[in-house]
């Protein structure tokens, strides 16, 4: 499985996964409840300042956002058209802050530790039919799938740019959708080859 963990000795690297994931959930909830552009901008700056504290560069932060710039552009344009410039800025900044915060947790936490923590934490749901092992498997696949999908998106955009089609949403979205379905099929085959039965 692809692990996005970036080795380091910062306080975030040393912190156990549970409190980091709890802070992520609380922060994400507060960001969604907040409707102030100023507060959202302050949250974005605060998250960015955590990167050097975690011995991560701003370049690594940029790498988390770069493959998604075209999505930000679409969201910004739609929100500007529907609700105005301030709302468009608010929506994009909030999304970027959430992605950077989630990436910060991923970059400072080994995937195996994160999955083990979630599997253990969901143990209390067994009596109502939730299988923590299945949830752990789903998360492990998501951790592998999401960064690969971001890279595929970037590759498609660069390929279409050489054809002069980088501004066409359909020219970018269709190849990404096709590759996404192919990747999902490959993951399904990998699970089946390992003998996993739900």
Structure in words:
The chain has 198 residues and is mainly alpha-helical. Helix 2 runs antiparallel to helix 6 (85-107), helix 3 runs parallel beside helix 6 and helix 8 (132-162) packs antiparallel against helix 9 (169-193). It is built from nine helices and no strands. The radius of gyration is 19 Å and the shape is globular. Helix content is 76%, strand content 0%.
Mean pLDDT metric: 77
Indicate the percent of residues in helices: over 70%
> The biggest beta sheet, please?
none
Per DSSP E runs of 2 or more residues, the count of β-strands stands at 0
Principal-axes geometry comes out as: globular
What is the CA-atom radius of gyration, in angstroms? 19 Å
Uncertain segments: none
Helix/strand-derived class? mainly alpha
Query: Termini, distance in Å?
Result: 20 Å
Order of helices and strands: HHHHHHHHH
Beta-strand percent range: under 5%
Helix segment count?
Answer: 9
Overview in brief:
By secondary structure, this protein is an all-alpha fold. The protein is built from 9 helices and no strands. Helix 3 (37-53) runs parallel beside helix 6, helix 5 (69-83) runs antiparallel to helix 6 and helix 8 (132-162) packs antiparallel against helix 9 (169-193).
């Amino acid at each position: 499985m692809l692990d996005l963990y970036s080795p380091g000795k910062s306080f975030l690297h040393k912190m156990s996964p549970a409190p980091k994931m709890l802070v992520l959930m609380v922060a994400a909830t507060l960001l969604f409840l907040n409707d102030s552009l100023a507060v959202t901008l302050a949250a974005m700056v605060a998250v960015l300042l955590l990167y050097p504290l975690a011995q991560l560069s701003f370049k690594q932060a940029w790498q988390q956002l770069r493959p998604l710039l075209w999505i930000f552009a679409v969201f910004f344009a739609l929100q500007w058209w529907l609700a105005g410039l301030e709302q468009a800025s608010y929506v994009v900044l909030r999304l970027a802050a959430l992605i950077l915060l989630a990436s910060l947790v991923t970059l400072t936490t080994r995937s195996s530790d994160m999955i083990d923590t979630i599997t253990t934490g969901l143990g209390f749901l067994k009596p109502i039919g939730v299988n923590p092992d299945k949830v752990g498997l789903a998360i492990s696949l998501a951790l592998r799938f999401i960064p690969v999908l971001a890279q595929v998106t970037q590759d498609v955009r660069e390929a279409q740019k050489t054809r002069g089609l980088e501004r066409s949403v359909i020219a970018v979205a269709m190849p990404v959708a096709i590759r996404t379905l192919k990747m999902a099929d490959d993951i399904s085959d990998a699970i089946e080859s390992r003998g996993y039965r739900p």
